[in-house]
Amino acid sequence: MQKLSITGGKRLSGEIAISGAKNAALPILCAGLLTADTVHLSNVPRLQDVSTMLKLLRQMGLRAEEDSERIAMNGARVDKLEAPYEMVKTMRAAILVLGPLLARFGEAWVSLPGGCAIGSRPVDQHIKGLKAMGADIRIEAGYIHAKARKLKGARIVTDMITVTGTENLLMAATLAEGETVLENAAREPEVTDLANLLAAMGAKISGIGTDRLVIQGVDSLHGATHAVIPDRVETATFLCAVAAAGGDITLTNVRTDILDVAIDKLREAGVVLTSGPNWIRAQMAARPKAVSFRTTEYPGFPTDMQAQFMALNCIADGSSRVTETIFENRFMHVQEMNRLGACIGIEGHTAIIAGVDHLVGAPVMATDLRASASLVIAGLAARGETVVDRIYHLDRGYDRMEDKLSAVGADIRRIG
Ligand SMILES: CC(=O)N[C@H]1[C@@H](OP(=O)(O)OP(=O)(O)OC[C@H]2O[C@@H](n3ccc(=O)[nH]c3=O)[C@H](O)[C@@H]2O)O[C@H](CO)[C@@H](O)[C@@H]1O
Ligand SMILES: C=C(OP(=O)(O)O)C(=O)O
Questions:
Q1: What is the pLDDT of residue 247?
Q2: What is the pLDDT of residue 115?
Q3: How far, in Å, is the centroid of ligand 1 from the Cα of 179?
């Protein structure tokens, strides 16, 4: 099993180009199922989840031609309406084929995702919404089996804000008969990016970027050309890395307008940030100051950045409180950080971090995607060598992270 070896204590200096957003690219690839025409995508990140999603879509009959960070996909020959367990278990986002398959082909078989390292993560709201649109949905042998001769528009109020739930229902609604209103919709920029692509494909959507999406169904969608938005989580991860290790880096291909909370917290931590239209520069010369926060839906503090900011707090001056409100089990990195000498206690959904003067490298285990990133950040700041095991989690969502970090002076390499 591959690992990352990091020898901490090197300041970071130079430029890193940010890749396209994983959480925008995955639903956007699934949108290719909604049309028989060709959808041209650029700024698609090269990471494991994208490869897994392409493998799944190709199994269904979607044609996808890849060239560097561009993909042209054509759904004219899609005929296998199934997402098997082997795919869904490695990538929960496979659930995003449910809405498009049902809307265009009237049937879908999607393995029910189980829980994962960060929480139980049910998909009841996806099912509730599709049922409200007239689908007949049964759970058969571990699969969601959905059927609908033609979906019908409906007013759907989800019990909680759900990102992929909103995306699935949005895609389904584009080809439903009549009007669908999605209340309590997720406002994450990745949902907006998907909605913008769907609009370019001929979908009639109003309220894009708000928590109330109104969709007038159309008979068919057509091809389009779209650039995936830059990854705000990858951006924030590298900003946390320089905040923890010190140095001066400039990130390019970024969208600073979707990073407000992260930027505020980094400034509070003492990072000097300057930015232009598509770049941000971070300079850090001192020990970071501790920052407290609670995760919430966009535009609040993202749960996907919680672990990386916690790594910063471990070596910060002062104590902090980090409350996780989205997932019930997203503190798996805490025990690993404590193995590096951090001082973190957990009270319910809150981690209380007493900043220590320095961390000391040790072998640690990655338990999920962002936990892995946080351990890399901790390793960059620690004295001596940290070896992060199970980095297949990291590879799911980061595009060549160790190459990008070594290019700015980090001592990091893949082993095993
Ligand atoms: C591929 C992708 O975009 N993944 C992101 C997406 O995950 P994902 O879309 O799976 O997360 P959701 O927004 O759906 O989850 C939010 C909360 O709602 C709960 N819930 C959700 C749906 C449902 O039917 N029932 C239910 O109870 C979940 O268990 C969780 O507690 O949003 C999360 C929250 O910003 C991010 O951490 C993930 O990186
Ligand atoms: C939790 C994440 O992804 P996923 O929903 O694909 O598990 C993430 O990107 O941090």
A1: 98
A2: 75
A3: 25
- Give the C-alpha distances (Å, rounded to integers) separating 302 from 149, 200, 258: 38, 28, 11
pLDDT at 116 over 90: no
pLDDT beyond 80 at 43: yes
User: Whose alpha carbon is nearest atom 8 of ligand 2?
Assistant: 304
In short, whether 370's Cβ falls inside 6 Å of ligand 2 is yes
Mutate which of 332, 370, 395 to test ligand 2's pocket (most atoms within 8 Å of Cβ)? 370
- φ/ψ of 66, rounded to 5, equals -110, 140
Active site residue 116: yes
Q: Note if the pTM is more than 0.90.
A: yes
Output the residue whose Cα is nearest ligand 1's atom 27: 122
* Distance, CA of 367 to CA of 161 (rounded, Å): 25
**Contact yes or no for 208/192 (Cβ under 8 A):** yes
Domains, the chain, in order of start with CATH, read 3-19+230-415 (3.65.10.10), 22-227 (3.65.10.10)
Please give the distance, rounded to the nearest whole angstrom, from the Cα atom of residue 369 to the centre of ligand 2.
7
Minimal CA–CA distance to 221: which of 25, 30, 21, 24? 30
Does the pLDDT of residue 330 top 90, yes or no? yes
